[in-house]
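Input (Fe2OG dioxygenase domain-containing protein):
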Amino acid sequence: MVATSTDMADYDRASEVKAFDETKVGVKGLVDAGVTQIPRIFYKLPEENFLKESSADQTKFSIPVIDLGELSKDPVRRKEIVEKVREACETWGFFQIVNHEIPVSVMEEMKDGVKRFHEQDTEVKKQFYTRDRLKPVFYNSNFDLYSAPSTNWRDTFIIKMAPNPPKPEDLPEVCRDILIEYSRQVMKLGNLLFELLSEALGLNPNHLKDMDCAEGVRLIGHYYPACPEPELTLGTSKHSDSSFLTVLLQDHIGGLQVLYDDYWIDIPFEPGALIVNIGDLLQLISNDRFKSGEHRVLANGSGPRISVATFFFTGMIQTSKLYGPIKELLSEANPPKYRETTVRDYCTFFRGKGLSGTSALPYFKI
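Output:
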């Protein structure tokens, strides 16, 4: 069951959204209050049901798992890995990586830290609740609460770790140390991934780093509480990321799906693995060589589900740096498909649109 136009016509969505926001307790606050029926603002859009779910075909479709273990030891092996990355980026826009050198203990503690943040005393957590995106650390429910047509069943904290990291004392006490350590390690991994992506495009290994694709880093801790009516809503609506690159740490609960060949394909939990996906800005500068994969997260009745997304981009930071299709990739047969934009202008458009089920990329096409 999804919301119908009749269901949705008899209530004032804007007022209900505002009332929900003003509680500053997010979706977890609803669960803590014992709701057995979800508010109408969370009903998913009917079009979310039009695409096919993966089922028997799941074995036919599965995102690549790439082993980075022997990367530095053997130039032949590196070439093979780059080729696997290229193929994954051109077809799926998603892949999983193993043997990436971030210890499992660090990954587990990072997930635990996100859980501690969202499950700490409500009054302490409320101090971080804001819609002011200029704050170095903030927490809220749905970044696009006032613009998206449907509200998602999740709460989130966002921390800008680069280029100007917050002072340690400004980080939430319950997860301060692990935020610093995990961010340090995932940024190092990000630099390696940008080298592989550059090589996969046939460019110098430092090309994307020299373009400052790794300059900005945002760490995002999602908390998807158990939902009493998971079939009526989504944890995250269909979207592609606005970043250059996203590295995702997910827990065992599952629910993440990528859209492939008109099927929703489950991305299973792989112990010790991280998920990597191409963002819109990398699709733009690669002139559509790499695909920014559309994905979503199902709501679940067994939660909470925890995930930690690291976005490589500068977001809303004011900068005059322009990004357009990389000139070395262009030719008479492959002219530029996109106009140049700043990261901030792209993100402003993306945020204004919200997770509406449509990509922001077409707006920037020539």
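The two ends are 40 Å apart (CA to CA).
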